[in-house]
Amino acid sequence: MRTEKIIFADQLRSLAFLSVVIVHWIGVYSIHKDTVSRLTFSPVSESDFGYIYRAITLPLPEFNYGPFGVSIFFLISGFVVSFSLKNRDSKKFLTARLMRIYPTYIICLIVMLAVLYSTSYFYWNVIPSLGFGNILSNAFLINNLIGVPSIDAVNWTLAIEVKFYIICAIFRHFIITRGLTSAFLFSVLSSLLSFLAREVRFPSWLVELSHEFSFISYMFIGLCFYLALSGKASKFSAAATALICFTSFSYFIYANHPIKLFFVLFCNYSYSILLFLACYIIKNKFKKIGVISYLSKISYPFYALHSVIGYAILRILEDIGINFYISLALTFTFVLMTSSIVCLTIERRTMTMRQG
């Protein structure tokens, strides 16, 4: 498979993380001020920058940069997983994937906590009330399974990725040899689990797991794209299986969310599929672009760092009267530099270990 064929997926990664940054730093920061206050232990902002987010929102029904960006991430993960799955046995594959996620995330979490404690204590005169157990469960990405809230509001996607890689490792041979069948069966299982979670009194951790499985069904759509690209499945069969996966995911979001939120998620996860499909169709037109490639390279540490650190810096800059656009530029620069350091030191080192 030529490298040019997957450049589009690499470049979509940059779009995905920038979309999430936009919704958090402009949308959430301006509209959900109580969330920012809770995460940063700062007073609720009295400013109103919501008009900026509304002005840059694409004119599509229910468009939202958050679920749009996250769903692109999920599709990319499902698409690229087969590249490493076929070249390693289950143990080496899972080890490599976990080494990709945990060291970088834990370092980013430590940096985030350092910024959080520094800004809240020295500027707002508040000591963050985060217990060690809360921090530890977040670091290991199991907090949702034991009823502990996320301390950064972004690690829920990483927890889903971990489950996805565990499933791929366990059923590696079946996924490699019967990829579409695997996606179909998992989607059926996910729908059944979602139904039972509503009708039967499951333990809370199992309910959470059923929710994560539904997002994994969506990730299998990326696998369908890969199977069509590699010629291991016909385009019709891959499209039909992808539709089943999306139907399973849609059932979950319909059954577990208010109708308004259902339409937001349904529309934006659909937009991502359409964008991915369009890029897939013109995949040979994509060429490497230095800036986009670099943003893609640092997208993971940036994603892991940006939420609370971004809120904390923006909130202080707002309090001292800095223009919001300048604040965004300064915050982006700081997180970009920090992400680059993490990428150069931690992520590259773990990459060497994974390849060794």
How would you summarize the topology of this molecule?
Layout: H1 4-31, H2 33-40, H3 50-56, H4 65-85, H5 90-122, H6 132-139, H7 155-170, H8 172-177, H9 179-199, H10 204-229, H11 235-256, H12 259-281, H13 290-297, H14 299-319, H15 324-355
Organism: Lonsdalea quercina
Protein name: Peptidoglycan/LPS O-acetylase OafA/YrhL, contains acyltransferase and SGNH-hydrolase domains
Transmembrane segments: 12-32, 65-85, 105-124, 179-197, 209-229, 236-255, 261-282, 294-314, 320-346
- Rounded mean pLDDT is 93
Spans of 5+ residues with little confidence (pLDDT < 50)?
none
Assess the beta-strand content as a share of residues. Answer: under 5%
DSSP summary: helix tally: 15
The whole-angstrom Rg is 20 Å
Q: Could you estimate the helical fraction of the residues in percent? A: over 70%
Based on CA inertia axes, which overall geometry fits?
globular
Class derived from helix and strand content: mainly alpha
How many domains in all?
Answer: 1
Extended strand count: 0
Summarize the main sheet. none
Q: Helix and strand string, N-terminal first? A: HHHHHHHHHHHHHHH
Distance between the termini: 23 Å
Protein name: Peptidoglycan/LPS O-acetylase OafA/YrhL, contains acyltransferase and SGNH-hydrolase domains
Domain Acyltransferase: 8-345
Keywords: Acyltransferase, Hydrolase, Membrane, Transferase, Transmembrane, Transmembrane helix
InterPro entries: Acyl_transf_3_dom, Acyltransferase_3
